[in-house]
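Kindly draft a sequence, keeping tokens residue-aligned:
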Amino acid sequence: MHWNELATALFGPDHGLQAEGALITGTAIFDGQPMAVIGTIDHAPIGVELALRQARAVLDLMAQHPGRPLLLLVDTQGQQLRRHDELLGINRAMAHLAACVDQARRRGHRVIALVYDQALSGGFLATGLMADACYALPAAEIRVMRLPAMARVTKIAEERLQALSQSNPVFAPGVANYVAMGGIQGLWDGDLAAALRQALQTAPREDQRAALGAERAGRRCAAPVIQQVLDAA
């Protein structure tokens, strides 16, 4: 779905959002109240510049409009794979972006993320997965690492990973698998404005992804291990 079509479905034709390069920013009126929107378009790779522009927008929101809800629109192919960005410290820029989103949540901003097209790798981790809750459209494409790359990192044969991905969501890309693992709170289909309204009312403020993964049988070990660590502390 094109970002402007999505914005119109959520906020109406006079949504007030603008795209400058790969970045969407603006303030939309939702149910009579202002809502900040920050997002990316066109499968944007998140490099140092784009990460810092998003972080600046979050910092400005906290400084100028305390408590205003924030909607993160996610469409990214992941971190920018350029030596230039590596030399500039892309890891620190993306960590700064993630920290800004986390700080907004801690300061009382309701932060909802929506994957409306593509969400890959670090670009997704530093934005969508830092929200109070992350949702997705049914046609979205979500993955953190392709199986060939996973095979190189884990030293497990790609054929073995392919077999595991048939029965274990942890090894498989796709929006349904991320719902099963608890990374995606739920899917938005049909009336998107109604889905956003419900998310603002019901999205958890505490991280429940491990518990959801256990409940949905997509990530069975995380919650018990977390509880064992807490019990031993």
